[in-house]
Amino acid sequence: MNTLEPSSVFRFFFEICKIPRESGNEAGMTRYLEQFARDRGLEYMTDKTGNVVIRKKASAGKEKSPGVILQSHTDMVCEKNSDTVFDFSKDAIQCYVEDGWLKARGTTLGADDGIGVAASLAVLDDDTLEHGPLECLFTVSEETGLDGARAVAPGFLKGSILLNLDSEDEGEVFIGCAGGIDTTARFRYQAVPAPSDGYLAFKVDITGGTGGHSGDEIHKDLCNAVQQLARFLWNAQQKFKLGISSISGGNKRNAIAREASAICVINQKDESAFTQLFLNISGNWEKEHRHTDPDLESRLTTVPMPGTVIEEKTANNIVAALYACPHGVLAMSKEIPDLVETSTNLASVRMDKEKHIIRVGSSQRSAVNSARRNAADRIESLFLLAGAEVSHEGEYPGWQPNPDSPILKVSIEAYKQLFNTPVKVKAIHAGLECGIFLDAYPDLDMISFGPTLKGVHSPAERLDIESTGKFWKFLLQILKMV
């Protein structure tokens, strides 16, 4: 890995991989950035949220150029496979190279957006580069609600052009994105004694789903493990007297659920029929997703009898709501071909046995504000009917495209000069911080771009090495031409 190019970018990326930086735990990164600036005599500021901006003077002859802000976020989505032993609060990401891709062993790689952070640091570190007045803004907690971007106050930044380095398709420049909102349903349940004489307990496991970013990959019809688990449980409830002791699945609000599990109790006389039902239904979903989720596995194993189960009415309501909850694309754009306009992600189900609460997490996205809110209201109405308490959090605006953007025109010309091919200009269904910045800085001229990333927000996350070199050249050419 020491031979990877561009060497300066990868050198900083591997340094970042040693620092824990789960959303909400970016203090180590903040200290690293502050020390980086002090070591090089660069001006820096840190706000109370943990955002850091580092400033560098223009190179000779570029003093009168407009100020450019390179922006990236320091946090990462921390996902791991269930059989991977890893502590995101202290362990370093274990990187390796395979077939031209940089990957991590059993966990997310953190190239979203560690590679943007690394590129910014490489620019700051190199005094041979040509650029105007430069600021590098590093925001925190992007993945859990764009909290850092929300906290960037007027006056914290000086530049008039912002280059967001958080996109995931090399050769494309983004000029707009969807806004989003999180919807959480909370079921309060009673734990009642589990039947014992003549009953058996089974654990249902769904693992190996492809997963991925709920913005970039929501249109791919990937297996949602939570919904498939509910599919089986609902069918079992129709045929047997089924007790549910525990249920869990998914994790982050912006990731498609890859794994899910439940512990069930059934009458011993129904064992054969129950097992056959599982084999039939799991065989169906594995066949349905054989192209999108080739590593999907479904298991039914006997386990010791639990002490309690969820009381029947609430168990029925939870399973029915999870099974009925929409997941995936709700509408495609009427203005931009092949762009998802509105979607919803059934992200997770989590059980708090101490508080007797089951939480269902979901997120809705749309480039149209009214459609985004309508999607969230639809999810709320469904869970209200099932007897849950519902709340909405973390709403953020979309970023409306500006096809007449001056920096867009510069980027188009820069890409053509470098690679003799046109760059693609697009909007994206994933959320970017750009829309947030416009609240405090309404006159910012912005674009977003980056290298090619796949499987983001899942342990399948991987960074295309060749595209990272092109991304780096593109960034330097834009800085040179501004």
Q: Can I get a quick summary?
A:
This protein has 482 residues and is of the alpha+beta class.
Based on helices, strands and strand pairing, what is the structural class?
alpha+beta
Radius of gyration: 24 Å
Using the coordinates above, name the CATH class of the largest domain: Alpha Beta
Shape: elongated
Number of strands: 25
Distance between the termini: 33 Å
Question: In CATH terms, what is the fold-level topology of the largest domain?
Answer: Aminopeptidase
Q: Count of DSSP helices?
A: 11
State the major sheet. 9 strands, antiparallel
What is the CATH superfamily classification of the largest domain?
A: Zn peptidases
User: Hey, roughly how much beta strand do the residues contain?
Assistant: 25-35%
The percentage helix is 25-40%
| Mean of residue pLDDT values | 96
- Residue windows where pLDDT falls under 50 for at least 5 positions: none
CATH architecture of the largest domain: 3-Layer(aba) Sandwich
Quaternary structure = single chain
Number of domains: 2
